[in-house]
Specification:
The structure is a homodimer of 338-residue chains. The first copy, chain A, has 338 residues and is of the alpha/beta class. The first copy, chain A, is built from 14 helices and twelve strands. The structure holds a DNA duplex (16 and 16 nucleotides). Chains A, B: This is LacI family transcriptional regulator.
DNA sequence: CTGTTAGCGCGTTCAG
DNA sequence: CTGAACGCGCTAACAG
C-alpha cells in the first residue's frame, strides 16, 4: 500500500510472531509448523511482501546469480549459448546476468570488477580477443568463486574450458573441401596470439599436408572478425585467380565476404565453397549450398553452466569429459583443481 | 591475499583511521583531506579492496542498476536497442541487466518479481505478446520506481512509451508498394489484441483506402511471429495467384516466407515485394531489392534510457516529444504523471 | 517448534 | 576535517 516495501518485520508485527520465524517460514524451513507457515504466507501476500535479495545476499554471501561474459549477444552462436545457460540456471534457481565485452579488454576488466562488487556466485566467460593476461579474472578466483571458460579457451592451467575440438573441426572442414576437389583453399583465420585461431589454423594445415597439398602463405588471411576484414579479404581473393575453395574459421568475416561476392556477381557455389563454424540463420540464407560445421551452442551453454554449478556446490569431481555432437566435437578440458 | 574480501574496516584498522572516514574517502567526499584520501586509496588498492555493492545498495536503497526486459535478444532489432541502452547507461554509471521473456507472460512475471527483489532502480520493457494486463508491472511502480515501455506500447494511461509512429510507418510502407504499381498487396499482421499490430494494420488499410484499392480480408494474415507462421502464410500466398505485393509488419515471418519462396524457386523481386520494419542484416542478404522501413533501434534505446534516468532523478518535466528519424518516426507518447 | 541476539558491509547521522 | 554509533533487511547461532 505504502510507497515503502513491506519487510519481514512488518509481517512479524502484524502477526505477533518473531521476525526470525517469519524468515524461516518464507524460506520454507521445516522447523516451522504448517499452521503458522500458512498464516505468515497469507499475510506476506496480503502486504505485497517481496524478499529483499540485497539484504539476504549480504547476510548469506550468496547472490543466487551467475554471470555470462561474452563479446556480443547479437552473434547467433552466443545468443544460443545464453539460451542454454538460462535454461539450466533457471531450473537451478539462479539468475543470469549477461555482459558484453565487445571484444574490448578494458570493458571486460570493468565488467569483472562490477561483477566482483555485485558478488555473483560464478562467471562463465568467452574472453575478448584482446585478453592475453588474466589478472582481472584471477582477482575473482581469489574470492574462491568459480570461472568456466567457453568457446575461447583460457591458456592458463587449472581452468575449466568448454569448447569443441577446434583442431578436429578445422581439419574436417578443410578435408571436406579437398574431398569436393578443391586444391587451392584460402583460409580466413584470426589473430595467432589467440589459441583458438592457432588451433584452427593448425587443423587447416594438417588437412592440407595429409593430402599432399602445398601450404601457400598467401592463402592465409589473419584478421580480426570484423565485416570490413571480410570485404578486404574477399577483394584479395578475387585477385588470386585460381582459388577454388575458402575455409573460414570465423563466420562474421565469411558472411561479409559472401555478401561482397554476391554484389560483384561472382557465382559463389561454383567458384568458391565456404565452411564456417556456426549455424547462424544468416548463413543458411546467404547461400543454400554453403557448407557449415556447427558448434552445438545450446549444449555448450548447458554444459558450461552445469560445470559452474558443480564448482559452486564444491562437487569437485569434475574430470575430463569428451564427447561428440553433430558434426563437431565438444570438449571439456580440465586440469587438476587448486 | 586472504580468501575473504577486504572491507572498509580492514583498511580502517590498517591505517588507524575510522571506517566512516574510509567510506567517505572511497566515495570521494569533499569532507576528507586530500592527504588522508591519498593514503586510503593507496591502501585500498594494496588490499585489493572492492566495494560491496550489496551492502552499499542495502544502505542507500539505490542499486545503480537498471533492467531491460524484452522478448529475445537474438532479434537484431532488440540487440541494437540494448546497444543503445548500454551506451547511455554506462556513461551515467549504471549497470544494465538484460532479461528475455521469450514472449511468455509467466516468464515475464517472474522476471519482474526478481527485479523487484533485486531492487533495480528502473525498468525498460518491451512487453511479451501475451501481456494484456499489467499487474506485475504495477507492483513495481508502487515502489515509486519508473518504467519505460519501448517498441510495444503499453495500453495503460500514465505510461512512458518510446516507439516509432507505427501507423505512419505502415502507411508509408504500403504506399511505397502502391507507388511501385502493386494492386494486390498481402499483409502479414500480428494478433489484433495487441495495439502495435492494430496500429500497423490500420496504416496498411488507410493507404489502400487513400488509393481507392479495395480491402480484401483474404489478403490479411494474422499470426504470431514464428517462422512456421511465415511458411504457412507463404504457401497460402502462392495459391492466391494474383498477389503482386507483400507488406509484412514483422520481420521473422517475412524472412521465413522469403526463404520458402526461394526454396520453391519463385523469383521474389519480380513477383513479390516485401517491406519489413527492421534493419536486420539477414534481410539485406536474403534479397538485395527488398524494401525496408527501419526502426532506429539504437536511438530508441538511447531515448528510452535517457527518459528512464530523468524519471529516476525525479526530473519530472517529461512532456510530449516527437521527431522523425530516417524513414520512420520515433514517438514518445506520454500522458501526465501521477 | 519459536524467540533472542548478533552481525553481514556500508553510509549516515550527530558530535566534536 | 574526523570519530562514534546506529541501522538498512535479513538470517545463523544459540537458546528455550
Amino acid at each position: 500500500m505504502n510507497k515503502n516495501k513491506a519487510t519481514i518485520h512488518d509481517i512479524s508485527k502484524a502477526l505477533g510472531i518473531d521476525s526470525s520465524t517469519v524468515s524461516r517460514a518464507l524460506n520454507d524451513s521445516p522447523r516451522v509448523s504448517k499452521k503458522t507457515k500458512g498464516k505468515i504466507l497469507k499475510k506476506a501476500k496480503e502486504l505485497g511482501y517481496q524478499r529483499n535479495s540485497l539484504a539476504s545476499s549480504l547476510r548469506t554471501s550468496k547472490t543466487q546469480t551467475i554471470a555470462v561474459v561474452l563479446p556480443r549477444i547479437s552473434r547467433h552462436f552466443f545468443a544460443r549459448v545464453i539460451a542454454g545457460i538460462e535454461e539450466t540456471a533457471h531450473k537451478a534457481g539462479y539468475n543470469v546476468i549477461i555482459c558484453q565485452s565487445l571484444d574490448n579488454l578494458e570493458r571486460e576488466k570493468k565488467i569483472i570488477s562490477t561483477l566482483i562488487s555485485n558478488r555473483v556466485d560464478g562467471i562463465m566467460i568467452s574472453i575478448s580477443m584482446e585478453t592475453t593476461n588474466y589478472e582481472h579474472l584471477e582477482a575473482y578466483k581469489k574470492l574462491d568463486k568459480p570461472i568456466v571458460f567457453f568457446d575461447r579457451p583460457c591458456e592458463l592451467p587449472n581452468c575449466i574450458n568448454v569448447n569443441i575440438d577446434n583442431f578436429q573441426a578445422s581439419f574436417d572442414a578443410t578435408q571436406h573441401l579437398i574431398s569436393r576437389g578443391c586444391k587451392h583453399i584460402v583460409h580466413f583465420s584470426g589473430s595467432q596470439k589467440i589459441e583458438l585461431y592457432r588451433q584452427r589454423k593448425a587443423g587447416y594445415i594438417a588437412a592440407l599436408e595429409k593430402n599432399n597439398i602445398k601450404i601457400n602463405d598467401h592463402y592465409i588471411f589473419e584478421s580480426n572478425l570484423s565485416e570490413e576484414d571480410g570485404i578486404r579479404a574477399a577483394k584479395k581473393i578475387l585477385r588470386l585467380k585460381n582459388i577454388d575453395g575458402l575455409y573460414s574459421s570465423n563466420d562474421t568475416a565469411a558472411i561479409s565476404a559472401m555478401k561482397y561476392f554476391k554484389s560483384k556477381r561472382v557465382r559463389v557455389p561454383e567458384d568458391i565453397a565456404v565452411v564456417g563454424f556456426n549455424n547462424d540463420p544468416i548463413s543458411a540464407v546467404i547461400e543454400p549450398s554453403l557448407t557449415t560445421i556447427n558448434q552445438p551452442a545450446l549444449e555448450i551453454g548447458k554444459m558450461a553452466s552445469n560445470l559452474l554449478f558443480e564448482q559452486i556446490n564444491n562437487k569437485t569431481k569434475t574430470t575430463k569429459i569428451q564427447f561428440r555432437l553433430l558434426n563437431s566435437e565438444l570438449i571439456i578440458r580440465h586440469s587438476s583443481k587448486k
